[in-house]
Inverse folding.
């Protein structure tokens, strides 16, 4: 049975409203902290699209007030499911900005698991937005995505394999320095900025590297800010090979 929901978050960001607007209401800006490759037609009635792992999702822009309010909504499916996003931007003294995010809609039969995943995921994504605006403001990130099924391995085993590959302790705290030599990839050297039961994020001089291990899969959502050498497509291929080798039987 369809289940309506609403999640609301508010945070203060170390950036002016124009910088926050670019990050939440333009394709290159969204690419730099959220998921997938994004495009935005900047007008009410325009299309906002995201492509993730070869799967496109589209929505309609329902509000477009530059520097103030941006909202999108997907078309309802046959079961009534839809997603709506609203971003409200408010400048504050000292060059900071308050951003309020409202994610609402209708979920399907397995709504409890979906809702829980959204509730846990948003704080992480907003943390990534803060990292982007704090450390890479004015730059555009190239998104890198890779996914590998875990083949029925227990979650604890997958986590242990991942932490070992990243040269991290079993339950690493944020602030931990990371220095890992990854087969087929440049060394990963930076600081652990997020650590919870199913994901890590490492900030380096040239990117934000996110590793997620929910049940059944291991995923990467990276944002690279260095000049594309290798290109984002080449980096994505290399990371996919790394994931596949990491979880090879």
């Amino acid at each position: 049975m369809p289940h309506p929901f609403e999640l609301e978050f508010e945070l203060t960001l170390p950036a002016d409203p124009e910088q926050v607007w670019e990050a939440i209401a333009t394709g290159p800006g969204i690419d730099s902290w959220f998921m997938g490759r994004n495009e935005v037609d900047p007008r009410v009635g325009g299309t906002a699209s995201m492509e993730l792992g070869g799967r496109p999702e589209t929505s309609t822009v329902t509000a477009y007030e530059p520097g103030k309010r941006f909202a999108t909504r997907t078309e309802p499916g046959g079961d009534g499911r839809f997603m709506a996003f609203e971003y409200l931007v408010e400048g504050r003294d000292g060059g900071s900005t308050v951003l309020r995010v409202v994610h609402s809609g209708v979920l399907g039969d397995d709504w409890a698991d979906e809702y829980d995943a959204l509730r846990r995921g948003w704080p992480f994504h907003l943390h990534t937005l803060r990292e982007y605006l704090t450390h890479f403001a004015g730059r555009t990130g190239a998104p890198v995505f890779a996914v590998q099924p875990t083949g029925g391995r227990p979650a604890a085993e997958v986590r242990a394999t991942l932490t070992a590959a990243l040269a991290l302790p079993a339950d690493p705290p944020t602030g931990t320095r990371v220095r890992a030599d990854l087969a087929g990839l440049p060394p990963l050297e930076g600081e652990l900025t997020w650590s919870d039961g199913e994901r890590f994020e490492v900030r380096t001089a040239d990117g934000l590297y996110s590793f997620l291990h929910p049940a059944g899969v291991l995923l990467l959502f990276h944002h690279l800010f260095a000049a594309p050498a290798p290109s984002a497509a080449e980096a994505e291929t290399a990371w996919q090979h790394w994931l596949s080798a990491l979880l090879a039987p």
